[in-house]
Design a protein that fits this description.
The protein has 190 residues and is mainly α. Helices cover 46% and strands 10% of the residues. Strands 3-5-4 form a three-stranded antiparallel sheet. It is elongated. The termini are far apart.
Length: 190
C-alpha cells in the first residue's frame, strides 16, 4: 500500500498552495451571500489571508481568463466581480481581444497633468512598461538611465520623473516589484 500524499519535504506546502490558487480566489466570489457586490483586493486578502500582491496576481489571472471583470474606482483603487451571464450570448462567442489590458491601463493611468503633458507622461509610462517587458528584472536605476532620457515627460530630474511613473507602473497588471531585493521590477506575463 502506497501513500498518495506528495512528499515535498515541507508539510505546509500543499495546503498553502491550494489556499492561494485562482480557484480559491474564485470561491471567495462564489461563496458569499451578496453576489452583486464587487470585491476589492483587500476583501480577498482578508478572506484568504494572503498578501496584497498575491491577491492582485490571482484576480488579474481570473480577469485574463474572462472569469472575473474589473474596474478602477479611484486613483489607485479597483474592484472585481463575477459577470452576469448574457442570456443571448455565450462567453465563447465573444470576439477575442488582443492584449487590451495594458493599453487600457496605460490610457487610464492616474498621472498628473493634462493635455500635451499628460500625453507625454502616458508615453513615458508605456516606454517604462516596454522596457520592463524586454528586461524582466529591471532596477530603478536602469529605468532612470535607459527610459527617462528619451521620455522625460516634462520632468527636470530623474527622481521627479520616477515619483510620477513608478506608482502607475506598479498598477499595471503584468508588472510586479520585489521589494526585498532592492526593488527589482518584474514583467510577470510571458
Amino acid at each position: 500500500m502506497t501513500d498518495s500524499t506528495p512528499d515535498s519535504g515541507d508539510p505546509s506546502a500543499a495546503p498553502q498552495e491550494a489556499q492561494f490558487s485562482v480557484e480559491a480566489v474564485l470561491t471567495v466570489f462564489r461563496d458569499r451571500s451578496d453576489a452583486a457586490r464587487p470585491l476589492t483586493a483587500n476583501d480577498v486578502m482578508d478572506e484568504l489571508g494572503c498578501s496584497r500582491r498575491t491577491a492582485h496576481n490571482k484576480l488579474n489571472a481570473l480577469v485574463e481568463r474572462e472569469v472575473l471583470e474589473t474596474r478602477k474606482v479611484g486613483a489607485r483603487s479597483r474592484v472585481w466581480w463575477l459577470p452576469i451571464p448574457n442570456s443571448g450570448t455565450a462567453a465563447a462567442e465573444r470576439a477575442p481581444v488582443a492584449e487590451p489590458t495594458v493599453d487600457t491601463e496605460v490610457a487610464n493611468a492616474e498621472l498628473p497633468g493634462s493635455g500635451e503633458l499628460l500625453k507625454q507622461r502616458r508615453e513615458a509610462l508605456q516606454a517604462a512598461y516596454d522596457y520592463v517587458s524586454e528586461h524582466p528584472n529591471a532596477t530603478k536605476s536602469e529605468f532612470l538611465t535607459e527610459v527617462f532620457p528619451d521620455y522625460p515627460a516634462g520632468c527636470k530630474t530623474a527622481d521627479e520623473w520616477w515619483k510620477i511613473i513608478e506608482p502607475a507602473l506598479t498598477d499595471l497588471p503584468t508588472v510586479d516589484v520585489e521589494t526585498d531585493r532592492g526593488h527589482v521590477w518584474h514583467f510577470v506575463k510571458g
